[in-house]
Design brief:
Layout: H1 12-41, H2 48-71, H3 75-97, H4 104-125
């Protein structure tokens, strides 16, 4: 008699894993684009650090946007959590690979990545609606 026509969306761990895969894909896409820009324009290797920060920020933004748009609540919290996880994962990997340690640039990267993710979470919750929930 009644049909369930609502879309089923991923929840829980599946939702966050899907968001992580989207974030990784977006990050890799922008890294490839920026690598092509560096190659084609003959830019110095010094541009790799800012380009990688921007790539990771955009990937974290996309992941937070996806997860918060599916969960439809607490976008700022979901976005911040996604940003913290992204930053922690990249920082641990970079500490294992290189011996450079933490610096003031690490704090700068932390702020940029977490802010981008929080904004992605807020925009994801408010996507396509007239509501203004932070």
């Amino acid at each position: 008699m009644f049909s369930n026509t609502s879309k089923t969306s991923p929840t829980g761990l599946v939702l966050y894993l899907t968001g992580a895969l989207i974030g990784i894909a977006v990050t890799l896409l922008f890294m490839c684009v920026f690598a092509a820009v560096i190659l084609l324009l003959g830019l110095d290797r010094g541009y790799t650090v800012p380009f990688s920060t921007v790539s990771l920020s955009l990937g974290s933004f996309a992941a937070a946007f996806y997860v918060s748009s599916k969960s439809q609540h607490k976008g700022y919290l979901i976005g911040t959590l996604v940003g913290l996880i992204s930053f922690a994962a990249v920082t641990v990997i970079s500490l294992i690979i290189s011996n450079s340690g933490l610096s003031i640039n690490t704090l700068f990267h932390f702020i940029i990545i977490v802010l981008a993710s929080a904004i992605g979470g807020i925009l994801g919750v408010n996507k396509g609606k007239n509501k203004k929930y932070i």
